[in-house]
Amino acid sequence: MIELSAIRKAFNQGRENEFWALDGIDLHIEAQKVTALRGPSGSGKTTLLTLVGCLARPTEGRVRLAGEDISGLPERFLTEIRRRRFGFVFQQFNLIKGLSALDNIILPAYPTGQPRKQLLERAEELLARLKLGHRRAAKVEWLSGGEQQRVAICRALINDPELLIADEPTANLDSHLAREFMAILEALAGDGRSILLSSHDPLVTGSEVVDRLVEMRDGRIVDDR
Amino acid sequence: MKLWLARQRYLIDFTLASLARRKTRNLGLLFVYTVLVFMLASVTLYSHALRQEAARVLANSPEVIVQRMVAGRHDLIPPGYIEKIGRIRGVQTREARLWGYYYDAVTKANYTFMVPAQGAPAGGEIIVGPALERSRGLAKNNGISFRSYSGKLHTFVVADVLPQASELVSADLVLMSDESFRAFFDYPAGHYTDIALSVANPLEVRNVALKLAAALPDARPILREEVLRTYASIFDWREGIVLALLSAAILAFGILAWDKASGLSAEEKREIGILKAIGWETGDVISMKFWEGLLVSLTAFLLGFVAAYAHVFHFAASLFGPVLKGWAVLYPRFQLTPQIDGLQVATLFFFTVVPYAAAVLVPIWKAAITDPDSVMRG
Ligand SMILES: Nc1ncnc2c1ncn2[C@@H]1O[C@H](COP(=O)(O)OP(=O)(O)OP(=O)(O)O)[C@@H](O)[C@H]1O
Ligand SMILES: [Mg+2]
After folding, report:
1. Domain for residue B256, yes or no?
2. A117/B contact by beta carbon, under 8 A
3. How far apart are CA A3 and CA A68, in angstroms?
4. Fewer CB atoms < 10 Å away: N or C end of chain A?
5. Is B144 found in the same domain as B81?
6. Comparing A86-100, A191-205, B282-296, B322-336, which segment has the lowest mean pLDDT?
7. Could you tell me the distance, in angstroms and rounded to a whole number, from the CA of residue A185 to the centre of ligand 1?
8. Reported ipTM
9. Is the CB of A19 under 6 A from ligand 1?
């Protein structure tokens, strides 16, 4: 589905604190698989996720999506790709405070201009699926960490993306909630949705659900199983 | 197009929710903004209405008034004086007028007693302006007594009350017959207060004045256009003072708006990043903020303008009236005729709404075009 070839990513390029967070990545992320990135802090996992998710552009190398080179596309197209094909679950959840769970969930669909009724129906389905229906009207800041993450997952799924990208999804959860998350992940994988996540939590990386484990260190891939 | 509309509707929904989320801050801003519009609109509405009113007063007055001067002071027009003017080209009518001021100790107000050129009431009857109608509780066929300067009490019957059309013109008028006037003021027979000349062609007014000065060296011609100009400059000057004071307020507001806008809070920046990350385009973010700016500034504009309208036309501009009015001590009490000038509203709108919208948009644009990858890092 997504092919990365000879990807390098520099921060502060050309300045004295220039830093190459990614240094030659070749990776093929397959459809309908759960791929996990593992590696020590600073190894470049988050950076790689931002490149795959079109949140940033590589300094060198190519990103191909379904065969098409997207690394050189202008911002507008990248945004549209991001909206239509990727769903993000951020480590800090990144919900918009002051809005209800439901309003947060339908937010990524606003630019599509779909009828509100349709959006709400979909959001309700997702809420029901993640057993969150009773919290639909609650402001997100009143939700518990686990609930917030489930809202974030619903939001990531509202535009029915091909790939779900999750950065350190269990870092802010206790082991009980982490296991719940893995159950959700398993269900989503069962639907055939492609998932890319990063983690150094053994509960995630050692899980049955993960089809493929990519080991990173110092901006390179050191192991791929 | 339909899609665009649907999209904008979502953005406006989100904007409204955002405004509600930061209630205190936005209400504070709205308040300051409204007060500013209110003050600016009050000044402009008020001075515009005053100017119109003055123009209307003078529109009814003759083009040239001739006063006779004795020892540099205004004196009565003696008998035979008007004939001395003779025929001057361009003068349509000459009319000797009788009028004077009367201080009413009961209401502590000055009235203008006058003998109208046409339609004077019969002897012993008067026609009064609306101010008198109010202050002395007069109505048609009521009797009223005034003590003349010589100490005698004169009783009149109110034959009619003047219409309210332009109060500034007629509020304090008392119209009476020639005989009543002379009897009341002990005015010598054959003498008049001044002479009014009507000149049809405005280009001839100066010529007429020159010829008058030649024919009657002791006369002083007063030209309507000069009076108009004097009024206008007094107004402009007063308006200038108030506007200068207000510019301090405008400056403060500018700083506030700029600060609010450019000092995008970390929270707002984070939200913009999130919205972009989850698929909002830069244009969506900017439109959203545009709607926000427009809603705030339009609301402030409407509230401020309506409040100013009420202030000026229903509460007689009690806040800055005294500064702007000044000259109107002659007319102690009057209501301005409500009027709105389109160009003026447009100017006000331009100077209050546009700068704010710009101040909001510039920093947003900067924030909106940055890469959203920072949201991945908490
Ligand atoms: N905006 C930036 N400017 C400069 N350096 C950056 C920036 N973002 C990331 N880096 C650096 O790039 C390297 C890789 O960062 P990245 O966040 O991808 O690591 P990670 O594998 O996700 O680490 P962690 O497990 O702690 O989340 C780090 O050394 C980090 O300091
Ligand atoms: Mg990371």
Report:
1. yes
2. no
3. 9
4. C
5. yes
6. B322-336
7. 25
8. 0.92
9. yes
